[in-house]
Task: structure prediction
Amino acid sequence: MSPQSPFPWQANYWSRLVNLHSVKKLSHAYLITGLKDIGKYQFACEFSRYLLCRSPSNGNACGNCDNCSLGHKSDHPDCMKIFPDDKGRVIKVDHIRSLSEFFSQTSHAGGAKIALINNANYLNTAASNALLKTLEEPSDKTFIFLCSDSPSSLLQTIRSRCQTIQMTLPEKSIAINWLQQSVVTPCDFDSLLNSAKGRPLYALELQKNDLLAVEERFINLFLELTTGKISLQLIVKAIKDIGEVIAIDYLINLFSNTTKALLHGSLEDQISSQEKTFLDICSASNLSTKNVALAFFKFHDELLVARRHLSETNLNTQLIVESLVWQWHSLWRE
Ligand SMILES: [Zn+2]
Result:
């Protein structure tokens, strides 16, 4: 078995943690932030293997000891992984309760106990409060890694109890080099990475599943809603078909890119042709550029709130989506 290691663009973050660990200064809790699909969770998984390894060498897990073998075949009993439920929408309080129980038990291998929480922004209120308690009472040799591409959706009190690792987009050459080694069918890596907005793991997904087409079709529908060509019901149905969280993420992406381009005209060459079309549609309205930007800001905020609400099980998904679509419609068509 080969030694485990992080992705090539994560070397700096990795060595920083390894160094802290070697001088016993690793913090109890880390929040790994950054865009989706740059390998935040995979980094945390790899680092947990390193922490559990009995004989790490050169800053990597050995890949051969009993802990490495155990962690490779299935989940290591001293590493608990928590992520949103099947629909990808919520981390419930039961998950966090089992986490406190996990930490209260003796370590299986006699070493560290680690919890990894992926997409931590989907913790609902009760789960957030329960996690806060765990973060406030750190026990010896326990580590928690939260990963999130939307850290502002987390409770401020949770964020303040974690050390933040802000992962940036990989350098293009490093990402392309990695894609060349990871993609089976050769392709135009440069434009593949551009379509994925520089996120290597998403580029890989796009190539495998032709996901780009799904996003494009959905954003086209949203453009048609903006020009009044299709009904509110049609877009609500499209959102339901794709999955509410995914569709809202597509919209968040559309609005953050176009708002940036609107505010700094020079960025216009960095947006997709579809985003350009969207900007053209909105610029052709009677509103001034300033008011278009304000409308974009406002709706971007609404999207973030909606995404947060989708993680609360007691709210009606259909209602959240309908109200969102209605807000855009009235913001734009009135
Ligand atoms: Zn090992």
Residues 53-55, 61-62, 64-65, 67-68 surround zinc ion (CB under 6 Å).
